[in-house]
């Protein structure tokens, strides 16, 4: 038996024979429905329809052949293959090039309207020719037309979602310290990449009473800074006045499109308004508003479409919203930076140290130069340094950090709490600390401010004055000359230095040594030091020089070689070494040209300075007066 020819699809035959007539009827109907210039999307669809009809005819013949020969030789089932019809066209019937064109100024509603008209043209032509397709063929026909609508809608939605995602990413970048011009440029790039019909786009920000381009694509960048657009003129003036999106369907002949859509050039630009381009069609402007306040204007234009699609306009609005938010954030950052700059400049001029700690960690957000000088010495500490780099790990410095902790976490205010701290160069200083919490509008503690005054010299001067007052008072007490001498030495060793020794030269009598110490370790060494001849009798050059000059001499750093020169023997040297003296002052005592002795003051845990020699010299003067008074009193007693 000869094989039968495969069954023909009446609808396929119909499409191949009448596709040209169908397209002509469709074009006539479209011109009646939407007179005027056709969009690029319509033109793309018209060019692609013959190919769609050819592919549809092939699929129809394949479907009819499959339905005529059911598997297993069974009789054809009128309902067989219903489930498989919808998967006959898994790939897009329109190429991606055409889908991209469909997005360019082509509403999805227009796509549906175009194919609704096309569907009617096909059905009417079927009726006129008397063609009677099967239900399978009609199902495939309708699903193909539906798919042609679904494909651009799906692709457009996916591209729009990616565009909105890109806008979100740019907004996230704005949370960092990124320059506003760079962010606006990224937004403009998203617009041009996502809305393919856009030929140029600009974002203008408000600067006083004018708008300036801060980002753009398709516009001469060299003119950005030169052009200033007044708020009341041109296309942007209308957008500003109406505070809503403004669209021009055909902008070329419209006077609002002058100066590339920007309005008249500002007086400071020195530029004349440009003639509108004859090719300029769609123009769309969106005000950039932040809580009702104008921040700027976004303007986009196209030379290819007469009007932007609803989806593109939605994208422009979203981009303008993002741009307004980013510009507002940038302005706030600039204001905060300016205020912070003024605040920093103010605290830098303060004579006291200031430090601001933020957050639960207490990390330093700001400190002035004076604070750095106090806690670091001559070196300047950079701002934003953690507090541990400003204060040492000693117990006293831990107390200073504890003050900040109490203010940050307990809300306590501390005023003028004096405590010692060790400066970065190792010197022990006395500071007056004040701390107060900083609260926000809701009463939450957000920071703490500490002020620090270095009162070391002030307290030192007060102690020296009090010391000399007490020494002067001793001289006014009833005559007990030996007791007065011992009291002066005690003041020097316990109130001024850590150890004070007085070598007495009684003029013919046996020289003797009087000493007093503040530290227990130094007091324990006194018996060993008193066993040796006085330092006055030593031949050390420094002692001889001090005695000869009759001036107080500062030994800022006591070294072991120097101790070896003044020591009166190994045991004496061992005791001096155990003392661990850091500095010393030698004061020769004289009266009426006669040498009376040598007063030496020693410190263990601090360095003596040149200004300390004045206090030491005064103590020496009081000691000289006491010694001389004792000598005169003795001579008077012997003469009686």
Automatic annotation (TrEMBL):
User: Which Pfam families does this chain map to?
Assistant: GAF_2 (PF13185), PAS_4 (PF08448)
InterPro entries attached here?
Answer: Biofilm_reg_signaling (IPR052155), GAF (IPR003018), GAF-like_dom_sf (IPR029016), PAC (IPR001610), PAS (IPR000014), PAS-assoc_C (IPR000700), PAS-like_dom_sf (IPR035965), PAS_4 (IPR013656)
Instruction: Indicate the segments forming the PAC domain, all copies.
Output: 415-467
By its UniProt entry, which SUPFAM superfamilies does this protein fall under?
GAF domain-like, PYP-like sensor domain (PAS domain)
Residue span of region Disordered: 251-275
The record's section on PROSITE patterns has:
PAC
**What is the protein name for this chain?**
GAF domain-containing protein
Q: Native species of this protein?
A: Sorangium atrum
